[in-house]
Amino acid sequence: MSKGIEFYFDFGSPAAYLASTQLPRIAAAAGAELIYKPVLLGGIFQATGNVSPVTVPAKGRYMMIDLQRYAARYGVPLVFNPQFPINTLQLMRCAIGAQLSQPARFPALVEALYHAMFGQGRNLGDPAVLGPILTEAGFDAAAIVAGGTDPVVKDRLKQETEAAVKRGLFGVPAMFGDGAMFFGQDRLDFVREALGRL
Amino acid sequence: MSKGIEFYFDFGSPAAYLASTQLPRIAAAAGAELIYKPVLLGGIFQATGNVSPVTVPAKGRYMMIDLQRYAARYGVPLVFNPQFPINTLQLMRCAIGAQLSQPARFPALVEALYHAMFGQGRNLGDPAVLGPILTEAGFDAAAIVAGGTDPVVKDRLKQETEAAVKRGLFGVPAMFGDGAMFFGQDRLDFVREALGRL
Description:
The structure is a homodimer of 198-residue chains.
Chain A: E1 4-9, H1 14-29, E2 33-38, H2 41-48, H3 57-74, H4 89-101, H5 106-119, H6 127-136, H7 141-147, H8 151-166, E3 174-177, E4 180-183, H9 188-197
Helix pairs in contact in A: 1-3, 1-5, 1-9, 2-8, 4-7, 4-8, 6-7
């Protein structure tokens, strides 16, 4: 396919989860490839000076209501994970490793992990929880967890995160299409318009 | 009218400007009253610990692009005021005074001042600029500027801002309708839906 939409995400972001539930359909409708870009949100925050909205209590409370409104609009479940905040470093490394080793199955992996995290509220920061989720979804859990410890994979996540910051990211989800960046699960209509122009 | 939508704003917010260009039509279409709520954004930030998006440079750069996209969608001009940041304390006091003394003409005043600030990029923080803008728009400039110095008016702005924080505001624009808060000029579709339910 000649046109694509890049989707920057971290499994720790409920907004990126919401975007992940909509983007496959948006890309397919536009005949565009959905290009998954796993990055470390904590690294982006550190590099840009940005912080999570929940650091401002009033904003954090509103954000939960706002995301539930969108979940209802999209018709998808949204459980605020009681385990939060979860350090997603190992998880994002596993994602990078899985994307490199089995790119064709990566969209299914993203869907399974996001569903477990925000559709069911399971603690993906705990390897004892992550393993069975991967197995249930039909993946080789041991291989994916081991893949996350590969120095090449670790370095790749670092590089991808640094490149994202250079590109202008200050959080996730962020989408690139038609040469432009769109930030937030609430900008999917602009993504749709950008794909329509290609 | 029995149903209303409350619109919290400060003249320093370009996002609130964009909302101000759309809300009168949204309220009218729903047969709802648009209730203007002038507040001091700086006071809300101070009380909640929130900060302007421009404090994170990457976020500030994106925000300008994002707001221009919405301005294009709405078909309204948007000039990033070269005078920024403007201290809006005097301006918001004048707004409170004008709202108290001539409530029926207040929507026209809001429109004129927002247009000067973000449609034309004029420096409303400078009394020498503000005066002629008020006169051009058909208001008694001297009376409005004098009104902003009234202790009752000053106290009212403080009270309104504190009450807004108690209500959950962490920034502007914020709208209340059907008992719910909606934050941001990008949530006007939810405002429309809330008015539809009333």
